[in-house]
Write a structure and sequence with these properties.
transmembrane; nicotinamide riboside transmembrane transporter activity; 7 helices; globular; cell membrane; mainly alpha; transmembrane helix
Length: 184
């Protein structure tokens, strides 16, 4: 356990708690967390997760803008819902992207657990995009990501991060319940 992992864990807890509550203040903590985790995952040879953190910087900036616009229109951050066809397209896209990214990581890097890590990364991308768009379905994907990430991080000896993802799992269930009640 390093001080950097401890700081990233703390920022992550604050970030996700604020996301569940639909608070705009989640974004500064998200940006701090993902920058620290990019460094951590790179040094653990979890390259998919390291690159994912860089993607998170961009999508968090988009989310900050999108949530600000939503709040300006209604006074609070609105929750949206996908139709069934869109849900199936997102799921199919996640599966296809996971297979393709896992294959690339397996073939071209010395990544630890390229398929597992790659699947977590691709489902995380979809979840983060949906969350930035304020779709409650993002929480379903976050639950799946958290369930897959905990054992991977434990195997890599990232105990604080594994524990953080256990807390993220509980927060994701809370987020799913809270956002489902608030959906448009």
């Amino acid at each position: 356990m390093s001080p950097i992992e401890a700081a990233a864990t703390l920022f992550g807890l604050i970030n996700v708690t604020l996301v569940v509550r639909r608070s705009m203040w989640n974004y500064p903590f998200a940006l701090l967390m993902v920058l620290l985790y990019a460094w951590i995952f790179f040094h653990q040879k979890l390259y998919s997760d390291a690159l994912l953190q860089l993607f998170y910087v961009v999508v968090n900036l988009y989310g900050w803008w999108n949530w600000s616009r939503s709040r300006a229109d209604t006074g609070e951050v609105r929750v949206e819902q996908l139709d069934n066809a869109a849900r199936l397209r997102w799921l199919a896209g996640c599966i296809a992207a996971s297979a393709a990214w896992g294959a690339l990581m397996h073939r071209y890097t010395d990544a630890a657990f390229p398929w597992w890590d790659g699947g977590i990364a691709m489902f995380s991308i979809a979840a983060q995009i949906l969350q930035s768009r304020r779709n409650w379905e993002s929480w379903v994907l976050w639950i799946a990501v958290d369930l897959a990430a905990v054992p991977l991080f434990a195997i890599k000896g990232l105990w604080l991060t594994a524990g953080l993802y256990l807390v993220f799992l509980a927060l994701s269930v809370w987020g799913l319940i809270h956002w489902t009640k608030a959906k448009a």
